[in-house]
Design brief:
Elements: E1 4-8, H1 14-22, E2 30-34, H2 35-41, H3 44-51, E3 56-62, H4 66-77, E4 83-87, H5 91-102, E5 111-115, H6 123-130, H7 136-149, E6 154-156, H8 159-169, E7 174-177, H9 196-201, E8 206-209, H10 211-214, H11 219-231
Parallel strand pairs: 1-2, 1-8, 2-3, 3-4, 4-5, 5-6, 6-7, 7-8
Helix pairs in contact: 4-5, 7-8
This protein binds cytidine-5'-monophosphate (C5P).
Residues 8, 10, 34, 118-119, 156, 178-179, 188, 190, 208-212 line the site of cytidine-5'-monophosphate.
Length: 232
């Protein structure tokens, strides 16, 4: 199974992200494009980065009625992205409609990954605001199982949860894990972190790293370090 390091390109403009990617010269890292860049620059930024030869995870976390999500996925799939996501909270019908919207005429489609509970949501907020009273780790595993049943390819989760997700949903169900930091690195606002090596040992399939690479003095060296530690 393909394991890789995905760089979260959380920049607000085309100029910034392209200048960042220029530093990699011949290398073509897997890139995550999120809401800020996509809403700021529009779909053309995806086409431009794709044309440079990068794989793209489009992190827009869709959540709406099934028909709307299906139609949105249909147009996003035409951007030729490699991975995309939606909220498991949209329920299984929304997720399976998302999947069918992604299917291209040639029979291919991007990987579809579910967001379970956001890592910014804790037990207290979940109980108070969402009226969900089960333990949050059980909620995450339940959402992962529902996503698997709906035919999705995997979930976004903490590397700390990757092993358990594989136990519950099988080894082939992908775990895409942010919250990765180098040993002795600055954690920023990420609370529960693992190093790339620990994430590998815990069974992460893809690690997502933003600031430890984008804000590094030498981003290419930081990326190569992440690859080396993660791929072993
Ligand atoms: O800079 P950093 O490595 O913390 O970036 C992590 C990336 O992963 C960010 O783009 C963030 O939005 C995203 N993410 C996350 N936690 C989640 C889902 C996505 O940190 N649960």
């Amino acid at each position: 199974m393909a394991k890789d390091v995905i760089i979260a390109c959380d920049f607000s403009s085309k100029e910034e992200v392209l200048a960042f990617l220029d530093k990699f010269e011949g290398r073509k890292p897997y890139v995550k494009i999120g809401m800020e860049l996509f809403y700021g620059e529009g779909p053309d930024i995806v086409r431009q980065i794709k044309a440079r030869g990068h794989k793209i995870f489009l992190d827009l976390k869709l959540h709406d009625i099934p028909n709307t999500v299906k139609k949105a996925m249909k147009v996003l799939s035409r951007l030729d992205v490699d991975m995309i996501n939606c909220h498991a909270a949209g329920t299984s019908v929304m997720m399976s409609e998302a999947l069918s919207g992604l299917l291209r005429e040639d029979g291919t489609r991007p990987l579809l990954i579910a967001v379970t509970q956001l890592t910014s949501t804790d037990q207290e907020a979940m109980e108070r605001d969402l009226w969900i009273e089960k333990p949050i780790d059980q909620v995450v595993m339940h959402y992962a199982s529902v996503a698997k049943e709906a035919g999705l390819d995997g979930v976004v989760c903490s590397p700390l949860e990757a092993g358990k997700v594989h136990e519950v949903c099988g080894e082939g169900f992908l775990t895409v894990t942010p919250g990765v930091r180098f040993a002795q690195g600055d954690h920023g606002d990420q609370k529960r972190v693992m190093t790339p090596e620990e994430a590998r040992k815990n069974g992460s399939d893809y690690i997502v790293m933003g600031r430890p690479i984008t804000a590094a003095e030498d981003p290419v060296a930081a990326y190569e370090r992440a690859l080396k530690e993660f791929l072993g």
